[in-house]
Amino acid sequence: MTDGSYATYGRKKRSVNATSRLDGTTEDELCNSIRLKRILKTNLRKNLAKSRESVVKALADDSFMVLCAMSPVSFSLGRHDEYCALERHGIFCQVAKFTV
């Protein structure tokens, strides 16, 4: 443009490929599994060790990583991994199942 102005382009919203979503996903950025969110809500206790033990027992699956701490812990996951993170009673628990 010769008048010194710049052309503006409308921002397009990216669409999510329906085949890349997990079954029962949520719009929550910290949780993409309704099942894992329900397990965390039900099993987090006021005690850190008891929370972790209760979540592990409820999962009944060795392929999940369960991490509970007194403060949030950051880690990266692929977009196809099943995960959920939740805080209750000052305890932060994260559950993830890594796909290979």
TrEMBL record:
Ground-like domain span: 28-95
Pfam families: Ground-like (PF04155)
Protein known as: Ground-like domain-containing protein
Species of the source: Mesorhabditis spiculigera
